[in-house]
Amino acid sequence: MELPINKFNKAFENRIRLGVMSILMVNDWVDFSTLKEMLELTDGNLASHIKALEVEQYIEVNKRFINKKPNTSYRATFLGRNAFKEHLNVLENIIKQNE
Amino acid sequence: MAEIEDLKEIRNLMEKSSRFLSLSGLSGIIAGITALLGAAYAWWFISQLGMMTIFVNPIIVLFADALIVFVIALFAGIFFSWRKAVKQGVQFWCKTSKRLLINFLIPLVSGGIFCLFLIYHGYYLMIIPATLIFYGLALVNASKFTYADTYYFGLSEIILGLLASFFNGYGIWFWGIGFGVLHILYGIVIYFKYDYGVTNK
Fold it and tell me: Is residue A69 classed as helix, strand or coil in its secondary structure?
């Protein structure tokens, strides 16, 4: 049986992007600082990966002000959710084939 | 294998970001013991009713008894969960704990107010079933935001409450089982399933 490696989604190759999507799959809007705290990352590191997911249109962004401080939140899009589910299937298949 | 690690990490992040996992089993055990003591006092008080000269309405005494039990259980719950959160190195007052609290409180406060009206209208025999049913609903509702075991704990409370509403007059026994015995059992399960490892880290 051929490995479905060609279907392996490049956007989720990275652990951080995978982590961001995992959190957004089970939550509605999540703000930047919460993501940073959950994933134990620095600002710059997280920002670049979020940008990558944004470019893929896997997440949508909401910028607003809370008490005059900028607050940015993210939510998984329909496209992103499907891509993530597809990625989980691929992971499962790989594991099954190796059993 | 990298894929297995990936799946583990995904699962871990999904749980951590949506469920509050610092509830302590010890607080359940203490809440249960307090409730049993409260029920024992209520039982003793009711058995003495015929012999004593009572200056206050017995309902007020029983209400105060229940309130004291509730306050002690609440503070034990907050204290031990806070301690566990510190041990786990996670925030105690965070988005998940807030969400847990709000979803727990909506059925609980409605039930509390409902019980006050039961007292007001004199439906005393329905108070204990109502407290059990609303508490069970609060647990079922909160279970989505903490340990999944809470769901079955809540269901048991609801079933007890429904039984208590049929078998009127045995309220205190149902109350002792629901708030005493079940709390202790739930506390022990949580303690050995989720606390034990943390304490020994």
Answer: strand
